[in-house]
UniProtKB/TrEMBL annotation:
Signal peptide: none annotated. This is FMN-dependent oxidoreductase (Nitrilotriacetate monooxygenase family). InterPro entries: Diverse_substr_monoxygenases (IPR051260), Luciferase-like_dom (IPR011251), Luciferase-like_sf (IPR036661), NTA_MOA (IPR016215). The lineage of its organism: Bacteria, Bacillati, Actinomycetota, Actinomycetes, Micrococcales. FMN binds at residues 97, 151, 222. PANTHER family: ALKANESULFONATE MONOOXYGENASE-RELATED, C2H2 FINGER DOMAIN TRANSCRIPTION FACTOR (EUROFUNG)-RELATED. It comes from the Bacteria. Residues 25-392 form the Luciferase-like domain. GO terms for molecular function: monooxygenase activity; oxidoreductase activity, acting on paired donors, with incorporation or reduction of molecular oxygen.
Length: 457
């Protein structure tokens, strides 16, 4: 019996600050101007992508007391941008990265339910966590949350938000809509939720939204992150560098779903990947080499190295060999915020990097270029389309979240040249078929998923 070909799911990642986007390129646009967001979203919708994915951070990183050189472009508020994009798009999903550590369930649930109504069922929440005091200084609670509690609080936050979203359901009772006005039901919106993090009760003031609940995304490769995704998420945003690594991750996460009364169809695995499309494979490879050197300047390479060594390395030549001194551990980190490596792993990382640099005769900059790159698909349109399809059909993933190196025009080569090839072989839609993001992603309806979990329990 011939195995049915899987449909490729696609997300488009509008970056926050990172080491992927080349903001110095003359074709790069603004990180804050709405025109950048509009063009990016409409290009993704033209390519029949499933959703647009906004990154967000709650504080810019600092390196040796100064704003990190990759973090100078700013991060506008996610909900504001997504609400505006709902008015200039019709089908594409609107996914926002919102922190579960420093936000309250009621406020989150209300904003996402509102976005789902405004967009006619296209809202998605990428749930992220934080445990560092540096980020926490922006908030009343500060950064006291123990790292071991970050996924526990995240699960509680999602659980409480779901209780609020479902509060307009009471058994078979659903508040009816008539001419845009919701009929008051005595049970509609009433909720109560209690655990070690939250003790809340009241009446939720946003009626049931088109999807019932927004689609939940989560990013994390750790065992805790995999369990959290298996229990709570509709899609997991991950990264892996080879087909074999992707297949191992795919098998592991899909296997975990059964522990939580879920089926493999209820969770999509979508690695974040970069791409370079050229007229030929050779041209694309040359473009990729140029892009990687643009992404990692000499200063950036030294900054990355200092995150591991935790010492001032400004005197070292980025085009020279790695330092012969060991990392400093057990002291305050030079980089505050999101760092490349935990301090207790620094000695092991430094040893591995030295071994690789020696084996391949790599300079500091060359090593950083090699070790910080995402999984990339590089080649002619046919080569890239074939590679993407091979990964999906061989269960390394269910699709991809594309991270272009240019904003906002970086998706254009993919949409213009690769998408038609995927559509031609029947693995990517030619038109949107569903009315909501959940339907377009091929996820089970909320009611069916809930019944399956009840039967499993």
């Amino acid at each position: 019996m011939t195995k049915q070909r899987k449909q490729i799911r696609l997300g488009a990642h509008f970056p926050g600050v990172n080491n992927t986007t080349v903001w110095s390129d003359p074709e790069a646009g603004s990180q804050i101007s709405f025109e950048s967001f509009r063009r990016f979203a409409q290009t993704a919708e033209r390519g029949r992508f499933d959703f647009l994915f906004l990154a967000e951070g709650l504080r810019l990183r600092e390196h040796q007391g100064r704003i990190h050189d990759l973090d100078v472009v700013g991060r506008p508020d996610t909900f504001t941008v997504l609400a505006a994009l709902a008015g200039v798009t019709e089908h594409i999903g609107l996914a926002g990265t919102i922190n579960s550590t420093f936000n309250e369930p009621y406020d989150l649930a209300r904003k996402f339910a509102t976005l789902d109504h405004l967009s006619a069922g296209r809202a998605a929440w990428n749930v992220v966590t934080s445990s560092d005091a540096f980020t926490g200084e922006n908030f009343r609670r500060g950064g006291y949350l123990d790292p071991s509690d970050r996924y526990t609080r995240a699960a509680a936050t999602v659980g409480a938000a779901r209780r609020l979203w479902d509060s307009w359901l009471d058994g078979d009772l659903i508040a009816d809509a008539q001419e845009g006005r919701f009929v008051a039901d005595p049970h509609a919106g009433a909720y109560a939720y209690h655990d070690r993090f939250f003790d809340i009760r009241g009446r939720f003031n946003v009626p049931r939204s088109p999807q019932g609940r927004p689609v939940i995304l989560q990013a994390g490769d750790s065992p805790e992150g995999r369990d959290f995704a298996a229990a709570n998420a509709d899609a997991i945003f991950t990264r892996h560098s080879t087909l074999e690594a992707g297949q191992e991750f795919y098998r592991d996460v899909k296997r975990r779903l059964g522990q939580f009364g879920r089926t493999p169809e209820e969770l999509l695995i979508l690695p974040g990947v970069t791409f370079v499309v050229g007229d030929t494979d050779e041209e694309a490879q040359e473009q990729a080499r140029v892009i990687r050197r643009q992404q990692v300047s000499g200063r950036t390479a030294i900054n990355f190295l200092e995150q591991v060594w935790n010492r001032d390395l400004s005197a070292y030549d980025p085009d020279g060999p790695l330092p012969d001194v060991d990392p400093v551990v057990g002291t305050e980190l030079l980089t505050q915020g999101r760092a490349s490596v935990r301090r207790d792993d620094a000695l092991q990382v430094a040893r591995r990097w030295r071994e690789r640099a020696e084996a391949d005769n790599l300079s500091i900059r060359e090593l950083v270029i090699e070790t910080t790159g995402r999984q990339s698909f590089i080649g002619s349109p046919l080569t890239v389309a074939s590679q993407l399809n091979y990964f999906v059909q061989n269960d390394a993933c269910d699709g991809f979240i594309l991270v272009p190196h240019l904003t906002p025009g970086g998706l254009d080569p993919f949409v213009d040249k690769v998408v038609p090839l995927l559509q031609e072989i029947g693995v990517l839609r030619t038109e949107y078929s569903g009315g909501t993001l959940r339907e377009n992603l091929g996820l089970p309806p909320q009611a069916a998923a809930a019944e399956a979990r009840e039967e499993a329990s």
